[in-house]
Amino acid sequence: MPRGRYSLHDPHDRTPLGDEHFHCATGPSGWRYVSQITAPSGDHAGSVDLAIDELGRPVRLELHAGGWQVRGAVLDGVTWVRSDPAGEHAQEGNAAAHSFAGASPAFLVATSRLLRPAAGGPAVRVRLVALTPPVLAPRTLDQSWTLTGTETHATDNGALVVGNYQVAEVDTGEQHPVHIAGDVVLAAPGIELEELESPPSGFG
């Protein structure tokens, strides 16, 4: 069960946004990721609880940030309920999308599992509902993912296979690299892996 810490920063000016302390695990029914997010001051800033099935579909999502809460799952596309900080209003949403996106590295792992592009193959397009801090307002976006190649690194715990992805935002054409080993993001825009207590888990 990988456990560790990501540092989060603004991908444009590298302003620190805090840390995400996580643990995750693979199993016969899929993968689950749980994290607590702290602000640069050390104060609690939110949490992520995401479970995907063996095909990479989000079967349960619960996000907290800035007092807002979102619960979601794959249902007629993706469906979610967003609640305000006061807890007085809950708004349900639905979109013809494949999965969710957000600031957490968990969403990058989940999307890579959902798409599974072939190394050197064509880009795979996906529609996502992005839920980003501080208010977790839903926004639909389209991305394309390309697996540009894999690298194998020798470690004390055996070979570590890293997938190198190129992710493009379809509406803007902006592209950025994402590096994933098993169920851990090694590096991505705004994300750095700072601590890892045990090796990434592999997917069957």
Structural features, described:
The chain is mostly beta strands and 204 residues long. It has one domain (3-198). The protein contains one helix and 15 strands; from the N terminus they run βββββββββαββββββ. The mean pLDDT is 94.
Task: Give the helices and strands, then pairings.
Elements: E1 3-9, E2 16-27, E3 30-38, E4 44-52, E5 58-65, E6 68-74, E7 78-83, E8 90-95, E9 99-102, H1 105-115, E10 124-132, E11 137-155, E12 158-169, E13 175-181, E14 184-188, E15 191-196
Parallel strand pairs: 9-10
Antiparallel strand pairs: 1-2, 1-15, 2-3, 3-4, 4-5, 5-6, 6-7, 7-8, 10-11, 11-12, 12-13, 13-14, 14-15
How far is the first residue's CA from the last residue's CA?
15 Å
Total domains: 1
Instruction: Report Rg.
Output: 16 Å
What share of residues are in beta strands? over 45%
**Strand tally, please?**
15
Unreliable runs, pLDDT <50, ≥5 residues? none
Secondary structure class reads mainly beta
Q: What integer is the average pLDDT?
A: 94
Percent helix: under 10%
Largest β sheet strand count, sense and barrel closure? 15 strands, mixed
Give the strand order of the largest sheet, numbering strands 1, 2, ... along the chain. Answer: 8-7-6-5-4-3-2-1-15-14-13-12-11-10-9
Order of helices and strands: EEEEEEEEEHEEEEEE
How many H/I helical runs?
1
Taken from the alpha-carbon principal axes, the silhouette is globular
